[in-house]
């Protein structure tokens, strides 16, 4: 939180800052590294004496004011100094007691975590996955202080590997149920890397690409494991339908990844959400939800848990067929529209 507050101060144009802390407190090496990353060049001094508001501008860092508010306060501060006045306290706030500061920091932490949710979250993510993943993110940040989002991405990959092993090594319903549970767990944990990236200002195109590739691999492994399990149980018909569905899913995923890499410079597979743009009709909304991983991971857990694995495979095949038609149609329309623009501009 201190590094985040100093980042806003740095972005507001300040070059030096004194942090007033409890006696004997000193920033750790990890915190200093975070401050250097988020506020490069900012000169920082830690003091354990009370600030004098008559000579300097005082900011309650626990309130995490934005860079715009800090920049405005700085202009007022310099104007008051130029006119002979003796400093000011930012936003006319009194200094907080230690207890009030801790309460405010907990509230601000909750606000920051809530802000890591995405507007495009699916219905399952919004009401089930996101609260759990935000709790996990909060726990990890409190335990380790600083953690790279790629560590969470690797965690999703490990859950996917364990899921596939259960499906292959444990025959029958046991392997199917455990695989479905782990698939849902991967779907939940998948939100952690993005939340950490947004909360700690570590979002990068490379990280987003790695996250998308891991997501796609986990999806394919899950359905591949289900099909292998069914085949070993002596159901080649359902397994064959599943194989064709996976082939269509892989083909559509490759098309989406190539299109995203070509036009946006990153690889992602936000299929219908990206292709339908601002089309918010009820039909497109339902189609979007059905083709999002959070929905079909939860649906697979419910169906397989109640013994309807064959139904789950057929539903997957039908949804993939519709999804692939939409993907191919939208990509074809987008390509023809761009070709028309090129011809017109020529």
Account of the protein in words:
By secondary structure, this protein is mostly helical. It has two domains: 2-110, no CATH class; 124-345, CDP-alcohol phosphotransferase transmembrane (TM) domain (Four Helix Bundle (Hemerythrin (Met), subunit A), Up-down Bundle). The chain is built from 13 helices and two strands; from the N terminus they run αβαβααααααααααα. A two-stranded parallel sheet has the order 1-2. α6 runs antiparallel to α7, α8 (205-232) runs antiparallel to α9 and α9 packs parallel to α13 (309-345). The longest helix is centred in the last third of the chain and has 37 residues, at 309-345. The protein starts with a helix and ends with a helix.
Might you state the CATH topology name of the largest domain? Four Helix Bundle (Hemerythrin (Met), subunit A)
Helical residue percent band: over 70%
List low-confidence stretches. Answer: 341-346
Euclidean distance between termini CA atoms: 53 Å
Strand proportion, as a percent range, falls in: under 5%
Taking all Cα atoms into account, the compactness measure Rg is 26 Å
What can be said about the biggest beta sheet? 2 strands, parallel
CATH-defined superfamily of the largest domain: CDP-alcohol phosphotransferase transmembrane (TM) domain
Q: Overall 3D geometry? A: elongated
Strand order of the largest sheet: 1-2
Number of domains: 2
- Per DSSP E runs of 2 or more residues, the count of β-strands stands at 2
CATH class type of the largest domain: Mainly Alpha
SSE class:
mainly alpha
């Amino acid at each position: 939180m201190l590094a985040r507050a100093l980042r806003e101060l740095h972005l507001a144009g300040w070059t030096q800052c004194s942090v007033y802390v409890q006696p004997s407190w000193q920033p750790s090496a990890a915190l200093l590294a975070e401050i250097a990353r988020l506020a490069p060049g900012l000169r920082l001094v830690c003091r354990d004496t009370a600030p004098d508001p008559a000579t300097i501008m005082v900011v309650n860092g626990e309130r995490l004011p934005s860079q715009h508010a800090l920049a405005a306060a700085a202009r007022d501060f310099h104007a008051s100094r130029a006119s002979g006045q003796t400093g000011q306290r930012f936003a006319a706030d009194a200094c907080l007691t230690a207890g009030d500061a801790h309460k405010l920091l907990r509230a601000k932490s909750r606000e920051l975590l809530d802000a890591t949710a995405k507007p495009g979250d699916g219905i399952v993510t919004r009401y089930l996955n996101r609260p759990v993943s935000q709790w996990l993110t909060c726990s990890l940040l409190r335990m380790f202080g600083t953690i790279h989002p790629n560590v969470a991405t690797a965690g999703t990959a490990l859950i996917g590997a364990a899921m596939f092993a259960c499906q292959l090594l444990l025959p029958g319903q046991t392997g199917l149920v455990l695989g479905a549970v782990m698939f849902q767990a991967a779907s939940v944990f998948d939100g952690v890397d993005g939340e950490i990236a947004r909360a700690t200002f570590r979002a990068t195109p490379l990280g987003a690409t790695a996250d998308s590739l891991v997501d796609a691999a986990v999806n394919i492994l899950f359905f591949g494991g289900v099909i292998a399990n069914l085949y070993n149980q002596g159901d080649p018909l359902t397994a064959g339908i599943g194989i064709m569905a996976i082939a269509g899913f892989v083909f559509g995923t490759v098309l989406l990844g190539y299109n995203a890499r070509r036009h946006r410079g990153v690889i992602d597979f936000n299929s219908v959400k990206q292709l339908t743009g601002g089309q918010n009709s009820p039909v497109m909304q339902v189609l979007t939800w059905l083709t999002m991983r959070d929905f079909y991971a939860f649906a697979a857990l419910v169906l397989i848990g109640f013994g309807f694995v064959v139904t789950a495979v057929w539903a997957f095949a039908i949804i993939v067929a519709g999804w692939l038609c939409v993907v191919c149609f939208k990509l074809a329309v987008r390509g023809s529209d761009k070709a028309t623009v090129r011809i017109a501009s020529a």
